[in-house]
Amino acid sequence: MILTRLDMGNPHLGAGIIVRLATDPAFADSTGGYFAVKDTKPLPCPELGRDETVQRALWEATAALFRNSPQPHSTFAQ
Predict the structure, then answer these.
(1) Which residue in 9, 25, 37, 66 has its CB near the most CB atoms, within 10 A?
(2) pLDDT at site 17
(3) Mean of pLDDT values over 8-17
(4) Cα–Cα distance between 24 and 32 in angstroms, integer?
(5) What Cα–Cα distance (Å) separates residue 27 from each residue in 16, 24, 64, 72?
(6) Which helix (H) or strand (E) holds 43?
(7) How much is the CA Rg of the chain, to the nearest whole Å?
């Protein structure tokens, strides 16, 4: 799998932590952040993620993807 080849971790473990963070009442007040896959302990944001120039570039690139993507066709009657 490409994620493991890129050393990004096991996607099954990644999905497990997302489900836990979304459903466990202990995280009800968490609105974002980085968490360890093994024990869900909070992790510091990597230095690159704190760079406002990088944040802005990512925001703009993501917005451009949405602007340039085809609109889905609705299957519901309007």
Answers:
(1) 37
(2) 85
(3) 75
(4) 14
(5) 14, 6, 32, 33
(6) strand 42-43
(7) 17
pLDDT at 26: 94
- CB burial of 41-75 (b: ≥16 within 10 Å; e: otherwise) equals eeeeeeeeeeeeeeeeeeeeeeeeeeeeeeeeeee
Q: Which amino acid is at 25?
A: P
- The pLDDT tens digits of the residues spanning 16-70 come to 888 999 999 999 998 888 888 888 899 999 898 899 999 999 999 999 988 877 7
Residue with tokens 């066709």: 73
Question: Residue 53 — left, alpha, or beta (φ > 0 → left; ψ -120 to 50 → alpha)?
Answer: alpha
Q: How far is CA 73 from CA 37, 63, 69, in A?
A: 37, 20, 12
Number of H helices, E strands in the chain: 3, 2
